[in-house]
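Batch manifest, entry 17 of 40.
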Amino acid sequence: MKQLSDIPPLPADISRFARLFDHSILRPDATRDDVARFAEAAARLQTATLMVQPHYITFALELLSGSGVPVAAVIAFPHGNETQSMKRSLALEALSLGATELDMVMNIPALKGGEQELFMRDIEGVVNAAKGKTVKVITENCYLTQPEKVRACEWIALTGAQFVKTSTGFAASGATVEDVRLMHQAVQGICEVKAAGGITAIDQVVALLAAGATRIGSSRTEQLIRDFQDLRPEQKLILSKPRS
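Output type: structure tokens
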């Protein structure tokens, strides 16, 4: 990877836009070369995080040392059916290795069964382990009815998690504008919304941000940023505004 001093700073609008992205390399067959390539891009673009499987936390930290880009990791990924104690243990180890953001999959069967106490304890265990670090809870919306999506977001908002997240990217479908809008309304400003899964075009990013997303998860970050550079100045201004 290039020395940080060799990486020229980005224009301010592109830099703000890049900070919306968790640059994600989560394929189960990802190699060290893949992770190194993604880390170089994350450092060059100054994305919000580099998102990796727990196996690569230490390696990613070495690659990103001094870059200012934190390493994020997935927990109970991609199905979320581990027990509360298993998820807490996974979170504690990921944090001890140096991850500073965690994206965990919620307990889908507990949600569907109406087991609110169990569902919330599952998330609270990870939130408490994180001690103020960012936790994003993946709802995996393709498995949920509309009322279940709302219920999941309302319950997650009560746990102290910082984000609800649409998808893992490894199920039948990913982020949709309709889901982001629904989730944004359901959390009522208590937490934020991350859109992830199947985001391949700048038009999708535009629509997802307009619907209420404040973070985007993608393995195609570089292409999306190149597409952003081709937008008209007024479009860039709207997309690169700081978001709450």
